[in-house]
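--- STAGE predict ---
source: upstream dedup step, 1 unique chain passed
mode: sequence only
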Amino acid sequence: MAPMTTQLVSRRGLLGALPLLGLVRPAEALVTPERWDFAAPYALRNLHTDAAQRFAAAVARETGGRLELAVQAGAELFKAPEIKNAVTSGQVLIGDFPLQAHAEEDAVFGTDSVPFLAPGWAGARRLYDLQKPFLEKRLAASGLRLLYSLPSPGIGLVVAQPPATLSDVAGWSIRAGSRALAQTVRGLGAEPVTLLIAEVADAFRSGRIRGAFTAITTAVEQRSWQFAGGFLDLGAHHPRNATVVQERAFRRLPADVQAAVLEAAKRAESAGWAAAAASSLAARERLTANGVRVIDPADADLRVATSASAPAIEAWQRRAGADGDAIRRGLA
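--- STAGE serialize ---
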């Protein structure tokens, strides 16, 4: 009787055989998926959080699960002003943060929050295109790569009763909401009032204010039809968030995964801008349905608002230096 022969199969040989047996696809045989937490500052059902979740799903799908982004909403990991530095330091490798949170650090970060620098949706998009190379340069200096940047609906003016023209708000008390908008309010001949969003309704009812700068979507959330008769859809500015990834971590990814992330980011930006515009339109319709008169500004009103905002615009330009000058030239 012939002796039995024992064959030892190496681990490498076994793994190599699995694809041939149809048990594992070749690309998956020796790949360990990456899982990154994604720091998001806002709660669920927010435009920016929704965009982050769609982006994460696209990345997982297009990388075959080799990169998974776990969106941690509601500032669960870090507060909004902390996210940029957390990504730089590697405490988290990807995150979304409001650019205006870093305006004091560098004026270029606050470009999108300068009132009437580039009003309206078209102005906001043009402003982003001009700001983007300077923004990318500053982020790169912090070891970050910009993936996409999305706007929020524009800032307008809730009013107790619509004025005939914007010039007619002179003498009013108006909730500003930011130092830059407080300068605009003064430029209009009105008195800026500092109030929390939660205090606005009572301030209208008591007559303490006759107007309040706020996003059109916030006007809906506050049910402003219960205390106001109009909304001037000025689009004073469209605050933006930036979604960034740590450059070192990004470069460690395989080239095809990097390409998939960048392609998904490009689509996320396009879809996110469209979603923000759609949200603004839905808010207009909701206000109108509840009896609030939504008014688009006349050209003369925009000229008045831009003139009133000149001190804020010029202060930003001085702080932004040569890059601010370039952005202003591009807008001219």
